Amino acid sequence: PLPILAVVGRPNVGKSTLVNRIIGRREAVVEDKPGVTRDRVSYEATWNGRRFKLVDTGGWELDVLGIDAMVAAQAELGIESADAVLFVVDATVGATDTDEALIKLIRRAGKPTVLCANKVDGQSTEAEAAYLWSLGLGEPYPVSALHGRGSGDLLDAVMAAL
Ligand code: GDP
Ligand code: MG
User: Fold this and answer.
1) Most buried residue, 89, 110, 111, 122, by CB count within 10 Å?
2) What is the pLDDT of residues 54-82, one digit of tens each?
3) Residue 116 host element (H or E)
């Protein structure tokens, strides 16, 4: 079986955009408003000749729950079955209480984790992402899922974790 990477993060941080970037196709549904997306959950990807499975934890529909409970439940499901976690934050917003709650879940699961500081579209914002070291998840990888910036370095780190 292929190694599994769970993509975890709050709604609207750019998980689906990042999934599309990594798989090189537009299969994940990108939504302008935060909320429930109707993405497929599982995708196959290849990097440097190695195949792996990507699980978009925002892809489940659990909207009977409140938004925070929903995010947590989705993340928990995804993390449980994953070999490694790609945790995505919106670097233009910073870490919110929901992010902190998700980090607790990830810590409890004890899976290798790579931190993606998304929406770093330009050089000027790259240095700003450095404050995310404070999350305690190691090096924040500045990425623009929208434009592709930084995604190679991110994937190298992901493959080292998988
Ligand atoms: P998800 O809810 O985490 O899956 O987030 P989406 O992938 O649906 O993206 C939410 C919004 O953020 C959309 O409007 C995207 O176009 C936007 N977005 C995603 N990645 C980036 C990025 O790298 N830069 C910018 N500026 N916007 C982004
Ligand atoms: Mg999504």
Assistant:
1) 89
2) 998 876 555 555 667 777 777 787 898 99
3) strand 113-118
Which string of b and e fits 60-89 if b means at least 16 CB within 10 Å?
beeeeeeeeebbbebbbbbbeebbbbbbbb
The CATH number for 4-161, chosen from 3.90.1150.10, 3.40.50.300, 3.30.70.100, 1.20.1250.20, is: 3.40.50.300
The answer to pTM > 0.90 is yes
Q: What ipTM, to 2 d.p.?
A: 0.99
Residues forming a β-bridge with 51: 46
pLDDT digits (tens, 9 = 90+) for 112-139: 999 999 999 988 777 778 899 999 999 9
The residue type at 162: L
Radius of gyration of the chain (CA): 14
